[in-house]
Design goal:
Elements: E1 2-8, H1 11-26, E2 31-35, E3 46-49, H2 60-69, E4 74-78, H3 85-93, E5 101-107, H4 110-115, H5 117-125, E6 129-131, H6 138-144
Parallel strand pairs: 1-4, 1-5, 2-3, 2-4, 5-6
């Protein structure tokens, strides 16, 4: 299984990236969305919703349970903007096994760098990939497949 966590603080930009990512993966393989965004993303894909709190701490047991419900070769986690990047990295790392690869994709826009440089730097530091917009997603798709 490929587990892809999308982090970031901007809801609309995150929704665009997650939607594009799900659509691209769904062209070739089944995919499940684990939605932990502040507001439900409501995308037309199989979804497990983790409402309230963040996947890194208050809902970590819910994330473990949600992972048990995933029966697709790909899962995309839309992570709450409240998640602490370092704690999230530790939680996601616990899912790594020979049959599960984990990738973290941080959505860090120029506006976020300007408005909140410290959170932007932490998101970037603890991610496998950093993008600023949905347009930068295409090159990563080949690597994630």
């Amino acid at each position: 299984m490929q587990l892809i966590a999308v982090t970031g603080m901007e809801y609309d930009a995150k929704r665009q990236v997650v939607s594009a990512l799900l659509d691209a993966i769904a062209e070739n393989a089944p995919v499940t969305l684990i939605d932990n965004a502040e507001q439900a993303l409501r995308l037309p894909h199989g979804t497990v919703r983790l409402p309230g709190g963040c996947a890194c701490c208050t809902l970590v047991s819910g994330l473990v349970d949600a992972m048990g419900l995933v029966d697709t070769p790909y899962a995309v986690i839309a992570v709450s903007g409240a998640a602490v990047p370092e704690a999230l990295a530790l939680v996601l790392n616990s899912f790594r096994r020979p049959d599960v690869s984990v990738h973290t994709l941080a959505l860090v826009t120029p506006a976020l760098w300007e408005r909140a440089p410290y959170p932007a730097s932490q998101l970037s530091l603890h991610a496998d990939h950093v993008i600023a917009s949905v347009e930068e997603l295409a090159p990563l798709l080949a690597e994630l497949r």
